[in-house]
From TrEMBL:
The gene is Txn2. This is Thioredoxin, mitochondrial. Gene3D superfamilies: Glutaredoxin. One of its GO terms (molecular function) is protein-disulfide reductase activity. It comes from the Eukaryota.
Length: 141
């Protein structure tokens, strides 16, 4: 009981002043704001197809080893572009309908979309140089 009260008191304290002067508070990085998980078909329509910015769509699966390599690599490069391109992550097991609609037959499959149209795509893992070239082509740099 005493431990529970002590924990409640600790959790109710204001966070300001508890951090050391040189520490940073936790928050989302700029890169994470440009990357999002697709929730459903209408979310895909709103955030990908209707996006005013180019979007990289990463079709992946939790059980896919190469996806676990490609995903973070791609996210890092999208973050470096500071909002010039967005990244949508689509789990094919949760969104089979989207995978079928976009003819995804293997994972990882990455689509480059502009103005709602697929303008480029690749299947499999790529190294950072190839990914940078793919992204630069998409944004026209």
């Amino acid at each position: 009981m005493a431990q529970r009260l002590a924990l409640q008191r600790l959790l109710s304290l204001p966070t300001r002043g508890l951090l050391a002067p040189h520490s940073r508070a936790f928050g989302t990085s700029a890169g994470r704001k440009n990357t999002f998980n697709v929730q459903d078909g209408s979310d895909f329509q709103d955030r990908v197809v209707n996006s005013p910015k180019p979007v990289v769509v990463d079709f992946h699966a939790q059980w896919c080893g190469p996806c676990k390599i490609l995903g973070p690599r791609l996210e890092k490069l999208v973050a470096k572009l500071e909002g010039k391109v967005l990244m949508a992550k689509v789990d094919i097991d949760d969104h089979t309908d989207l995978a079928i609609e976009y003819e995804v037959s293997a994972v990882p499959t990455v689509l480059a979309m502009k103005n709602g149209d697929v303008v480029d795509k690749f299947v499999g893992v790529k190294d950072e140089d190839q990914l940078e070239a793919f992204l630069k082509k998409l944004i026209g740099a």
